[in-house]
Write a structure and sequence with these properties.
mainly alpha; about 10% strand
Amino acid sequence: MEALWIATALVVAVMGGWPVTAGMLKLARSKTVRAADAAEATRGERTETDGLALTRTETPASEAIEVEVEAVEAEAQPAPPAPKTEVLRGGLLIGCLERAAVAVAILAGQPVAIAYVVAIKGLGRYPELKDTPAASERFIIGTLASMLWAASVAVLAKALLL
């Protein structure tokens, strides 16, 4: 009977984690988060308009006059590339395997093994994550939500049923 409870806990931890993780990622893309991101992006922009910069010059009457001057330097610098927003391949399968490993580690009484799961996943995704900030944010949110779900189910099953 104990094996049935362990199998049920594993199925709930693995399969139930997908809606939880998807919900967390959807929450991270909500309107309020996008609005905050847009406000932060516009705050960091320069105040130049159409390649023109405003320069202050002094006249003999000590009056300050603003004169438009071509910003040659601004034209010489290319616009920074837009951040990549690619989807990481294999995320669903990796997430299921990750949740299974976390649940098995806790049910087996070896929670230290969770550190190995995190290290393997992080090292395996590092080349893809170092160039894509949006993907790395989704990676962190998805990993934490997924692992917390699996750990919660495994701890609850271990405490109540085993």
